[in-house]
Amino acid sequence: MSDENMLEQQIQEMKTLRELTGLNRTGFAKSQGIPLRTVEEWEAGRRKMPDYLLRLLSYKIRMEQSATSQNKNVSIIRDENGKSIVIINDLRFKSRRSIEWNEIERYLKEYIGQCYEIAETSEKVYIGPDFPDEFCHSEDKKNVKGANEKAKANMILAIGELIQIATNKAATEDYDRKHKSRAKYGWYRYDTRFGIPVYNEEGELERYNIYLARMLVRCDADGRSYLYDFVRTKKETSSPPKQ
Hints:
The protein has two domains: 3-69, no CATH class; 74-237, no CATH class. Strands 1, 2, 3, 4, 5, 6, 7 and 8 form an eight-stranded mixed β-sheet that branches. Helix content is 38%, strand content 26%. The longest helix is centred in the N-terminal third of the chain and has 22 residues, at 51-72. The protein has helices at residues 3-21, 25-32, 36-44, 51-72, 101-108, 131-137, 139-143, 146-154, 159-164; strands at 74-78, 84-88, 115-117, 124-127, 167-172, 187-199, 205-219, 225-237. It is of the alpha+beta class.
């Protein structure tokens, strides 16, 4: 393998490791005790990372992610077409009849102030104070029913992962300046996907129902992008993805 190919492989591995953590470059550098400038130069290919250090970092992060996934019971896999799906196994709401949206709103407030990065575009998405209320009480939430409502309720367990795998970015203006400075620079919309398990009467896993949702992000006057809501949640397929 040529030096150029080895460097490209190293760059890709660095980006993959950071994507696994769900952190932006600043957060990643801080969490690993590495200067931000060094991380930026490694990812840009301006400096070659020692091979032994890359192996150690890869082992450390993958072990941490394995432990986190076991604790959270949330993981990111790829389907047969190479597209990412967030798998949520630890369902908080198993019944369609016992969903307390006020409780969900309180839970989501814990995310306020967090920042995540979209793997495909390296864009930062912040969680602002308007997200919990919009997620739980918007017109979209009022219109979602049955299994789709249950699916949306369980999305709260994997907000960071759903942002991380978001794809198919589309931009629109804030027509009629309805949201004023909160969406001064318009809106971004992305697709994101997740799966929740379906069990039989014996408690055995039968399949995963896969859902598609549209992630809505507002572009604030402060120059940041803020998660606003996940809308149009609907079942995509009942086929269990391969893990």
